[in-house]
């Protein structure tokens, strides 16, 4: 899963509005894109239909929570992903292990991430319950549960970069494969972010890049922005 990686470790997650936008984004992303939708923006039926259409073009579609990572959307996202075999599923940490097991039980294994938030303090993460936990203990627990990836959101561009780097290094050392940051990532800060983690040893680093690449009027991801981001990190 997720094998085609730029520089051996890098992929990008962009939202796509429809079939045409999907094709545009995939072309602009040169094969290093995981396209996605959010549960918050679709009914379950709409999400299922859209994913099935997208999977005529790609093997993997990401199902996000939406609503700024609203944990209440976990079950809706899980239903869309498990019904379609979407391939990539965003979940709050507290639900990630259950979701992974549920999908495997349905015979539709998913790449599941465990969402936590930064705290403003290196070495600490915040769960959706509001509880804080040491990054070291959290990484150990994620590894023990067999969850392949951690999502950190909202990182607010480079505001929480030190926390992201610390988490990435600890996850890589423990043997967790992926780190997925989200929130405020753009063409202006992506190079600094990638350079900060490229020696961490992490096998997969997948920024979720939404607001800065989405046309506010049409809600479509702008392929030129995708291409610009790829050009920046490929140089």
Structural notes for this entry:
The protein is α/β, with parallel strands linked by helices. The chain has a single domain, classed as Aldolase class I (TIM Barrel). It contains eight helices and ten strands. Strands 1, 2, 3, 4, 5, 6, 7, 8, 9 and 10 form a ten-stranded mixed beta sheet that branches. A hairpin with a 5-residue loop joins strand 5 and strand 6. The radius of gyration is 16 Å and the shape is globular. The model has no long low-confidence stretch (mean pLDDT 96).
Give a quick summary of the entry.
The chain has 235 residues and is an alpha/beta fold. Helix content is 38%, strand content 19%.
* CATH fold-type name: TIM Barrel
Number of domains as seen in the coordinates: 1
Mean pLDDT score: 96
- Please state the oligomeric state of the protein chains shown: single chain
- Helix share of residues? 25-40%
Radius of gyration: 16 Å
Strand tally is 10
CATH superfamily: Aldolase class I
The CATH architecture category equals Alpha-Beta Barrel
Binned strand content: 15-25%
CATH class: Alpha Beta
> What separation lies between the terminal Cα atoms?
26 Å
Largest sheet: 10 strands, mixed
Structural class: alpha/beta
- How would the global form be characterised? globular
Give the count of helical stretches. 8
- As residue ranges, the low-confidence spans are none
Series of H and E elements:
EHEHEHEHEEEHEHEHEH
Organism: Seinonella peptonophila
InterPro entries: Aldolase_TIM (IPR013785), DgaF (IPR010763)
Protein name: 2-dehydro-3-deoxy-phosphogluconate aldolase
Pfam families: KDGP_aldolase
């Amino acid at each position: 899963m997720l094998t085609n990686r730029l520089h051996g470790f890098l992929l990008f997650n962009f939202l796509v509005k429809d079939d045409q936008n999907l094709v545009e984004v995939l072309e602009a992303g040169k094969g290093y894109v995981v396209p996605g939708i959010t549960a918050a923006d679709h009914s379950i039926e709409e999400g299922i239909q859209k994913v099935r259409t997208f999977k005529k073009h790609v093997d993997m579609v990401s199902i996000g929570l939406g609503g700024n990572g609203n944990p209440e959307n976990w079950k809706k996202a899980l239903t869309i992903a498990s019904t379609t075999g979407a391939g990539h599923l965003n979940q709050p940490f507290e639900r990630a292990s259950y979701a992974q097991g549920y999908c495997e039980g349905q015979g539709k294994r998913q790449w599941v991430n465990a969402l936590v938030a930064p705290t403003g303090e290196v070495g600490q993460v915040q769960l959706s319950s509001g509880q804080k936990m040491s990054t070291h203990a959290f990484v150990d627990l994620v590894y023990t549960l067999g969850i392949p990836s951690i999502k950190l959101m909202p990182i607010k561009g480079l505001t929480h970069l030190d926390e992201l780097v610390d988490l990435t290094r600890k996850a890589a050392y423990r043997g967790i494969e992926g780190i997925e940051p989200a929130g405020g990532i753009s063409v202006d800060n992506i190079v600094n972010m990638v350079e900060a983690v490229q020696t961490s040893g992490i096998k997969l680093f997948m920024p979720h890049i939404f607001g800065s690449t989405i046309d506010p009027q049409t809600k479509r991801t702008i392929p030129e922005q995708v291409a610009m981001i790829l050009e920046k990190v490929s140089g």
